[in-house]
Amino acid sequence: MAKGYKKNKGHQCDHFDMDDTESIISSRTAMSDVMSDSITEDFTFDNSLDKLVDDLYAKRGLTREGALVKLVDAFESSNLLPFVEDRCSTISHLFINSIKKGMTNESNLACRAIGLLSFTMGGGSSSHEIMEEALPQLCKILSDESDQSKIPEVVKCIALVAVLGADDLDKTEMALEAIWKVIQPKSGYNVTTVNYKPPVVVAAINAWSFLLTTISTWRLNPENWIMHISHLSTLLESDDRSMRMAVGEAIALCFELKLFVNMKAKVIAQIETLSCEASRKGANKKNLNEQRELFRKIWDYVMNGGNVEETVKISSKKGTILCISSWTKLIQLNFIRHFLRKGFLHHAQDNPLMREIFTFGVDKKENLPKRVKKINRSESEKKLYMMMKKERKVAEARKQSFFNDLMY
């Protein structure tokens, strides 16, 4: 420090002047204040979480519901592993208690909380214990059709806790079967057929597909899935576009897993029709373009072996991206992103479980000069234009072929 260094006549010596001493003291005080503030914040945060957990013991439903709202928010926006890892069993039991006792809102929040707790724990023995306790209660709700508004969160929770906690195929198949009963309710003599609303069925299809992605292909016997694919084909004729799109992804997964034994030609024809569905006057056009794009992608994959590629930017600062290259991983990404909601980026950056599920890389374009980025962007736009032009021609050819078949 030049300011505190002085020269004497007889010799040279290094020493601090008063300004330096005050500066050091001030710096240490400031550092101490920052550490104190950090410790205080952690202590306050933990105390706040303890209070929310205590509120889950309350007899009053609104008190429990209020606590669940804040706990779900905390799971989404913070790393709660240090807080929950030593009390996972207690917290899980309280969440399940809210599912048993609570009205619709409380039950739905508790389902989300259980899934988020399991995802935070990252699999292993703790997630297995969560699944063992939660799965019977969740399946019991599915057998009670009196309140369909509970079912979407229940099927999502079943899928997630089974994926993270099941240690054998039996538990996974039990979860798959429970969810499938929502997709295809039982019918027959002395059986009351339940008509589930489209959003309920869509949630079940997405959960079922997510669960199916985790079964090793060598365990999948195509003969066991004939009835499932037949029913999925029937649902492709649904009037609800969101249902057709969910079914489309499930069918793409079945193609990828090589589960088709028969009906292949029929399903491909359905995919082709939906990929070029015309916009009719007076018809609902919501998500029409998204449907066309999805089924064109499926058709290209089935007929031409087209690649399924997608990247998600995780960190602009580090240039981190999440890379997708199969229908299996795309379905997993869509399900997890939808379940985590605003907490997706936080978990993608800090939760080791995400690194186990997905492949991460670095976007090399981020470090390029602006001039090179601009050139690359122009080239990408040109390629996109050519690709869209090609797709339009293919769609027109398919449409003309469709009309020719009708005429003859």
TrEMBL record:
<dbReference type="InterPro" id="IPR007701">
    <property type="entry name" value="Interferon-rel_develop_reg_N"/>
</dbReference>
<dbReference type="InterPro" id="IPR011989">
    <property type="entry name" value="ARM-like"/>
</dbReference>
<dbReference type="InterPro" id="IPR016024">
    <property type="entry name" value="ARM-type_fold"/>
</dbReference>
<dbReference type="Pfam" id="PF05004">
    <property type="entry name" value="IFRD"/>
</dbReference>
<comment type="similarity">
    <text>Belongs to the IFRD family.</text>
</comment>
<feature type="domain" description="Interferon-related developmental regulator N-terminal">
    <location>
        <begin position="29"/>
        <end position="302"/>
    </location>
</feature>
<dbReference type="InterPro" id="IPR039777">
    <property type="entry name" value="IFRD"/>
</dbReference>
<protein>
    <submittedName>
        <fullName>Interferon-related developmental regulator family protein</fullName>
    </submittedName>
</protein>
